[in-house]
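Help needed: design a sequence for this.
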């Protein structure tokens, strides 16, 4: 009887203990084990966004994005001031293949914390996935202007320009990236591809070689090696034809 009285008289402590236990499990990547504690915490206290948020993150990491979105939306209704809730809502929409549904959540996250570049980048990615390329380019450029050392913005802008076959512009962005981060060797391959597409074969080979010198085990290395062999054969054929 005493135990029951203690339990009934301290629901706040019970809720807190369950949340703390669930949080620790989640931090250890024990997502499945954390879920029952979050659910029990919600049974005790249904008006706290923290437990809904923690539960949603568990479902996100388990690949159940629809459930994650559902619980994040409940968390947002209870507390609409948290950047993390809207950022994760946007991410879960992207992971669930609903990029256009992610946009409003990233916009909300940016309004709460306009200084964090991650939500701005994800907003650009969302527009890109919705095939709103010019909007995505504008967002990436604004991000570069406002956070000039944020490497991911250059990377995504150059990749999108290449997708749009705007290779000269892409190469200029990649050159800026290389000046900012000389060890970002992936850019060598990108510049090589741009020159390749622009018909500047010698320049392409030069950057391909730089890439292979620094990243010989990269997943892109096989493509670059194959492309260099084809360029070499083309050069050999051209030399032979010029002698005929």
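Sure. Designed sequence:
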């Amino acid at each position: 009887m005493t135990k029951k009285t203690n339990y009934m008289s301290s629901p706040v402590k019970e809720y807190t203990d369950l949340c703390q236990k669930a949080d620790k499990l989640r931090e250890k990547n024990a997502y499945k084990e954390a879920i029952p504690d979050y659910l029990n915490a919600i049974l005790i206290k249904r008006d706290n966004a923290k437990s809904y948020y923690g539960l949603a993150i568990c479902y996100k990491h388990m690949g159940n994005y629809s459930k994650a979105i559902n619980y994040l939306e409940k968390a947002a209704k209870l507390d609409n001031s948290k950047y993390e809730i809207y950022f994760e809502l946007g991410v879960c929409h992207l992971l669930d293949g609903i990029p256009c549904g992610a946009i409003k959540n990233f916009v909300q996250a940016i309004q709460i914390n306009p200084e964090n570049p991650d939500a701005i980048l994800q907003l650009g990615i969302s527009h890109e996935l919705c095939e709103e390329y010019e909007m995505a380019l504008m967002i990436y450029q604004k991000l570069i202007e406002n956070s000039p050392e944020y490497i991911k913005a250059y990377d995504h802008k150059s990749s999108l320009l290449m997708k749009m076959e705007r290779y000269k512009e892409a190469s200029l962005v990649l050159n800026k990236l290389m000046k900012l981060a000389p060890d970002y060797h992936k850019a060598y391959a990108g510049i090589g591809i741009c020159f390749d597409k622009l018909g500047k074969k010698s320049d392409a080979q030069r950057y391909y070689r730089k890439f292979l010198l620094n990243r010989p085990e990269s997943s892109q290395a096989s493509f670059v090696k194959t492309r260099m062999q084809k360029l070499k054969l083309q050069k050999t054929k051209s030399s032979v034809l010029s002698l005929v």
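Residues 221-243 form the longest helix (23 residues).
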